[in-house]
Structures are given as C-alpha cells and as structure tokens.
TrEMBL record, chains A, B:
Keywords: Isoprene biosynthesis, Magnesium, Metal-binding, Transferase. PANTHER family: FARNESYL DIPHOSPHATE SYNTHASE. It catalyses: isopentenyl diphosphate + (2E)-geranyl diphosphate = (2E,6E)-farnesyl diphosphate + diphosphate. CDD domains: Trans_IPPS_HT. This is Farnesyl diphosphate synthase. Its EC number is 2.5.1.10. Coiled coil: none annotated. The keyword Repeat does not apply.
C-alpha cells in the first residue's frame, strides 16, 4: 500500500489543478473557491476514503475525483460556517477566512459553487462507472445534507446561548462532523467493493472515529492557542455553546477520546485486511495538535 | 397532453409533501426550507421540464422528482440571493424573505439544505434509472454551478456600482437565470429520449426563452410596483446595477422580448411534435405581470 504522504500529495495535486484556467467574466469565483480549497487542509476525509478503498483495490487514483469532491463539500461547509451570520471567524488554517479576503457575497457564492462542483464531479464520475459509484455517492450526499452536516450545523446554531441535553449534543456532533467522516469511509469501502460485513464494521469504525474527531476538536478549542490552531481558540466559550468539554469536563473528554480510539483500533483488528494505514491515521487524529 | 394547471398542481403536491414529518432536533431547518419552497412559486422550471418531456412520453409523473429537484435548486438560489450580504431583500412573493422569518444563519443553511436535498433526490433517481437520467442530471447541475447560475450571480455581484459591457451583461443574464431554464428544457428532452435534432432545437429555444425571461424581469422591475411583483420594485436602480433597461432602454427591451418570443415560437413550429403547451407557457411568460 502506498504511503499516506504520497496519497495526500496526489489529492493535493488534483485539487490544485482542478480550477486552473477556468472562468471568464466569472473568474473571481474560481479564485475564491481555489483560495479556501488549497490553503493547507489536512485532507482527512479524502485520505480516509482512499485508505479504506486501498484495503480492497490497488488503483486508488481511480477514485481521486470522488475523494476530491468530498474535500470540496468539506471546504464549502467551512466557508459558510465562517461567515459573519454563522460563526463569524476571521481566521482559518492560519489565514484570513474567505469572506475576509473576497467579501461576504463572493464567499457565500464560493461555498455554493464548491457544493455544486462536488455534484458535477460526482455525477460525471457516475456516468462512466458501475452501480457502486452511485451507491457510494448517495452515502456522501446524504451525509452532506439536512440529515447530516447541514442538520448538525442547524442544531449547533440553535444551541447558542442555551443548554442542550447530552443526547442533543451527541446528535449535533455526530451529524456536524461525524457524518461526512463516516460517509467517506463507507464510500471508500463501497467503491472498493468490500464485503457487506466489512462495510458494516467500517461504518461503526467511521462513526466512532467521527465522534472522537469532534471531541478532540472540542479539547483543542480549550487547550490550544489561536496560533497553534490556525483559527480562533476558545471559540465555544466565547459563543456560549454547549460542547463535550462543558458537559463532561476536559479530563473525561480526554478519556472518552482515547476510549473511542481504542474501540476504533479493535474494530480494525477484526477486519481480515491490511488495516495498518487506517490505524496510523486513527492514532494521528487522536493526538493531533490542530 | 394534460393541462398545465393539473401538472402544476401535481408538482405543488410533491413539493408540499416532500419535507413533511421530517427531522428531530433539526426540525427547524425543514420548516425553513419548506417555507420558501412552498410560498407560491410559479414552478416555471419544473413545468418547462415536464411539458418538454410530455412531447415524447405520456408518464410525466415519473420525472416529477427531477422537476422538483430543479425547483429546490431555484429556491435555494432565491434564499441566498435575498440574504443581506447579497441583494438584501425583505420581500419575496409578497411574503417576508427566509432570513426575515428564520434569521440569517438558518436561511443560509436552508439554502445549503435545499441544494443538498436536490442532489439527494437526483442521485436516488439516477440509481434506478437508465443512462439518460444521469445525462439529464449532468445538464442540470452544470447549469446550477459556477459555469451557470452561481457564475452569473458572481458577475451580478461584481457589477454593482459599475458599468459593464453589453457582452458581460448578456453573459450574466444567460448564466444567472437562463442556464437553469434552458437546462430544465434540455433535461426534459433527454429524459423523454427525444431525437438529437429536437434536443438541439429545444436547446436553442431554451436559450432564447431564458434570455426573454430575464429581460421581462428587468422590464417588470421598472414598470411594476412592489405590491404587484411581491418583491421590491426598482431594485436594480436602487443597487445601481447595469441591466437590459439601463443599456437598451424600456422600449427596445420590450421589442427584444417580443422578438425573442417570436423566435421561440418559430423554433417550436419546426419541431414535429405537439408543442402547443410549450407555446402557451412561452406566451404566458412574455406577458406575465410578476
């Protein structure tokens, strides 16, 4: 299996070339989309998709467009989340947020454009592939929508300045961040034509990883500095939002995160395939600093 | 062929039922999406798709989901266009705009949710249909994105408070409004398995109709009242935007609109099918009051 660094560099290359030389009178929108898409993202979702796929197939370059489309969806959600009417953030990945550079209107349209382009990429991909392609894309788009990311974001917005139950908090986290992470893994498995049993196991793995990822995010929000994170630290406290820290405290969160990661590794151990790369990225995510 | 009123009522019913009983903690987002989706739209795009399809097939109910998805795309674009950072409109279809009722953050997410849901509808539709479904959906999503609606909207935003050339104005209008109208017609023809020659003719018809539609919009913006239009009149003048009226004057615009409509009818006359319903809606659009 190819190393993670090499895969990431291929994803980066695909995304960097994607909007090159596009546009006429509308050139500005490609500039704005490109800015956020290629500002140094970790490419976690595409990597998870490709690493899962690579447990079953050798030719991972085949699915780079689908992986790239998921990164476009993730990027659109960041641009919209950062807007003044949402989280009102000035900094993302250590750089000014999209609307700080291009203005709110263009940033809004850049988000819309990235989501639309993700759909274009995927529908083009589906048009020359078999039924697995459509099934995988269904999973992704379901996770992006109102029963996934947009739904979680809605609950997040509604929860500002009020206390929410543990159930609602878990719902919010699972949907807001977890859904796309989980769907990237499931899509990778479906595209790799993994057996049904493995898809179920990987689905559970994805769910736990997504939750651990978001709890780690909450932890970093508290223990990290703005400089380290490349985005505003202590943001939830400022916005008076309920998160895992406010409900369970820092220590319990660290324990929960480690426990979930252990459970992830246990699931991967059960799958009769080379899961070493997925284990590597799982551990990296748990101990990440930003 | 079934009458236009009956088709519209079936589209309305599908859209009204679509979000019923959906959601748990995220219920608010469905409320917001539903509000704008079912506030009295004319359903022009789905009607054009179905009327075109019905020239070739009898079972138009088959494609209502695709037609409904296009209306979702159209509605998302209206919600985002109305936001304060875009056109900042308080009134749409005689009712308060989405953000006036639900706040900016939820309105933004409702737009994102509608675009995502359109994708869900379409990818589900494609999963049990033949290759024409994917081809038709490609046309729609291409028209919705940065080479279509989002691109036109970008040029529109960038043109505020400055003069633009006739070429740029035409580009903007073709993309902003025309692209989705044209794609609805082409998608209807592809789904109906129309012969290649007809698809080409209908494509030209769609292009001219889209342009006539937008010029009529510019005319109405000037001659209509806020009450008649159900939205702010004289909006382009207020925002100091270049439009067909500022470039060609009212009289020339009325002439252009009639000329384009005549050309539309001429094209329809050449197609060896019953084009009477498309002619009916073409004339209605030219003389519409809102």
């Amino acid at each position: 299996m190819t190393c993670i660094k090499k895969i990431k560099s291929n994803i980066d290359m695909w995304l960097e070339n994607y909007f090159e030389n596009k546009g006429t009178y509308n050139k500005k929108i490609y500039e704005a989309m490109n800015y956020s898409l290629n500002i140094g993202g970790k490419r976690i979702r595409p990597l998870l998709m490709i690493l899962t796929y690579s447990m079953y197939k050798d030719n991972y370059k085949e699915i780079i467009p689908v992986a790239g489309a998921v990164e476009m969806i993730h990027t659109y959600s960041l641009i919209h989340d950062d807007l003044p009417c949402m989280d009102n953030d000035d900094l993302r990945r250590g750089k000014p947020t999209n609307h700080k550079v291009f203005g709110e209107a263009i940033a809004l349209l850049a988000g819309d454009g990235l989501l639309s382009e993700a759909m274009n990429v995927i529908i083009n991909y589906c048009s020359y592939k078999d039924i697995e392609a459509i099934e995988a894309c269904k999973v992704i788009f379901n996770a992006a929508g109102t029963e996934g990311m947009v739904g979680g974001q809605t609950v997040d917005i509604l929860s500002e300045n009020k206390e929410i139950s543990k159930e609602e908090l878990q719902y919010m986290h699972k949907k807001k961040t977890g859904a796309i992470i989980k769907s990237s893994i499931i899509a990778g498995a479906i595209l790799g034509k993994a057996p049904k049993k493995d898809i179920n196991d990987l689905s559970l793995y994805g769910e736990k990883l997504g939750l651990a990822f978001q709890i780690r995010d909450d932890i970093l929000d508290v223990i990290g500095t703005t400089e380290e994170l490349g985005k505003q630290a202590k943001k939830d406290e400022i916005d008076e939002k309920t998160n895992y820290i406010t409900v369970y405290g820092l220590e319990k969160c660290q324990y929960l995160c480690e426990k979930l990661t252990d459970e992830c590794i246990d699931i991967l151990n059960k799958i009769p395939k080379d899961t070493s790369k997925l284990k590597e990225i799982t551990n990296t995510l748990l101990y990440r600093k930003k």
